[in-house]
Amino acid sequence: MKYLDCISRHAAGDPNKIAISVSDGRCMTYGQLECASNKIASFIDRTTARKEFSSASPVVVYGHKDPLMVACFLGCLKSGHPYVPIDIHSVPRDRALGIMGQVGPSIVFEVESSSAGSLATGTNEAASHGGGCSSSYEFVDRGELERLVTTDDASAISANAVSGDDLAYIIFTSGSTGAPKGVQVTADCFDNFCQWALSIGSQHASRENAVFLNQAPFSFDLSVYELSQALWAGATLHCLTKQAQDDARELIRSLGDSGATIWVSTPSFAELCLANLEFGAELLPRCDLFLFCGEALRNTTAARLQERFPSALIANTYGPTESTVAVTSVIVTPEMFTSNEPLHCGVPKPGTEIRIAKNIDEDTFSVEEAEAGELGEIVIVGDTVARGYFQRDDLTQRSFGELLLNGERVRAYRTGDEGFLDEGGNLHCRGRIDLQVKLNGFRIELGEIEESLARLPQVKEAAVVLVKKSESSSHLEAHVVSAVPRVESDFREGLALKEKLKKTLPHYMIPKKVVFRDALPMTPNGKIDRKALA
Fold it and tell me: Which of 35, 270, 453, 459 lies 20 to 30 A from 264 at CA?
């Protein structure tokens, strides 16, 4: 895997350079990262052989913004095992156990435990979620992991690194069936993405001595953007913890201390920072490139950023988890952000084509393409399309297929996004076709929230909608038909339902408001009238 080769070269050439720094002061050099990941890879080799796990069984890495998490990721890749990143703050413990139940991990590295408790006590709970999870997996807590990387023998370096179509990682996203679904990204997908991502804005923003800002949790695929680029280029990855992001004063202090030269985040996070007048070129004097993905970048946001950072480039990119983070890019010009037209997403990277489908044959995956300017479903064809969903052939067959690209059949993915290509080949995305929405950069299946509500004994029916109050203000709203007589106020009962949801859903999937109804409105064809609810 080219990514691993690059990191090893940097570790040999400049072992004392900081590879990963954290807003709370922790850090790890390239030499330490290489040594620690080699020891972890050797441990994985020994453990999986002893327990007779398959050579490519997934490994769960549980924690938050810790350099040891990155060492575990690399150790997994070096030993031929895909890693499954789970963030303790954005993924509730019950959901983490559900993911474990699906993947049946050979090893669980608990770099940090959540406030709800350790995963070590949840083996039976994880097994009850299905899949192959059992007590046979090896559980490694923080103390054992630290002992491993400081005292274990580093002489045995694994020769089983992932390559080609081997899985590199599995990231779980929201699923419409009530359970998260795991996107399988291969080593080639990862390498192909890295090489392209590093070219975005490279004529203006140097990668030498660069510091990439990491805002997203490692369980969110946007984090792959900066993680891959920083370590491939021999730069520094600077991670903002949740604690730093939750406090306005601490956030500004942390940003000022970061020395960031390349900013990677959702547009929503940038808008949050722009609300503070201290956020500007004086705070981040070396920042010369802003990279955005995960949700639509608004013209007004780009304009305000350019005003605060007049010397910086602003790049808008597009892509779902299923195509390895992003596949199109454009440098936003003043003419673009002052236009009345929404910002487009640019042109696809080399090795990728965007097809706009008027119709798709469900059986053969053949696409009837739209003309330039004509709306349709965005289909991605190319060398970063994932291998499908982990152990979900039904979902894979629905969304993944193969299409011809330069005379060869390559993987293709139906995004469920609506958009069009203009005469210049630029992609214009117009939002979701189905019940999947984007909120604050997170992709959310409304059906998963509805399923979670429906499982509660006091709920008879539920529908969740995204309510847009203005261009810059959106929130989730749950409409509920109660299954039991209501004895408290709607406000109190709504709070109680939200507290129950917090046990199984991430914070960004908790509805802001719960509305109780005697019945849900229906359309003439018998479906819930979501437009009326919104």
Answer: 35
Cβ atoms of 297 and 332 within 8 Å: the answer is yes
Residue 123 to residue 480: CA distance in whole angstroms: 33
Are the beta carbons of 34 and 4 closer than 8 angstroms? no
pLDDT at 526: 59
Give the integer Cα–Cα distance in Å for 333 and 330: 9
Q: Is the pLDDT of residue 110 over 60?
A: yes
Q: Is the pLDDT of residue 51 over 90?
A: no
What number of other Cβ atoms are within 10 A of residue 208's Cβ? Answer: 8
Instruction: State the DSSP string of 338-365.
Output: TSSSPP---EEPTTEEEEEEEEE-TTT-
C-beta atoms surrounding 376 within 10 Å: 21
Distance separating alpha carbons of residues 325 and 182, to the nearest angstrom: 14
Q: Is pLDDT at 361 greater than 60 in this prediction? A: yes
Q: How far from 455 is each of 280, 448, 462, CA to CA, in Å?
A: 47, 11, 10
In degrees, rounded to 5, the angle at the alpha carbon of residue 508 between the alpha carbons of residues 504 and 509 is: 50
User: What is the H or E stretch that residue 394 is in?
Assistant: helix 393-399
Q: Which residue has the tokens 């929405």?
A: 437
CA atoms within 13 A on the CB side of 366: 4
What pLDDT, on the 0 to 100 scale, is given for residue 133? Answer: 54
Nearest to 23 by CA among 321, 242, 284, 206: 242
Q: How far is Cα 352 from Cα 289, in angstroms, rounded to an integer? A: 24
Q: In the predicted model, what is the mean pLDDT of the chain?
A: 91
Which residue reads 């020769």 in tokens?
A: 159
Domains present along the chain, CATH in parentheses: 25-152+160-185 (3.40.50.12780), 198-343 (3.40.50.12780), 351-430 (2.30.38.10), 436-533 (3.30.300.30)
Enumerate the β-bridge partners of residue 263: 213, 290
475 burial level (CB within 10 Å; 0-12, 13-18, 19+): middle
Count of CB atoms within 10 A of residue 501's CB?
Answer: 22
Which pLDDT band, with edges at 50, 70 and 90, does 373 fall under? very high
Instruction: For residues 422 and 188, give the distance between their C-alpha atoms in angstroms, rounded to a whole number.
Output: 30
Q: What is the pLDDT of residue 1?
A: 94
Average pLDDT over residues 445-466: 88
DSSP state of 119: G
For residue 256, give Cα distances in angstroms to 1, 206, 207: 35, 20, 20
Identity of the amino acid at 482: S
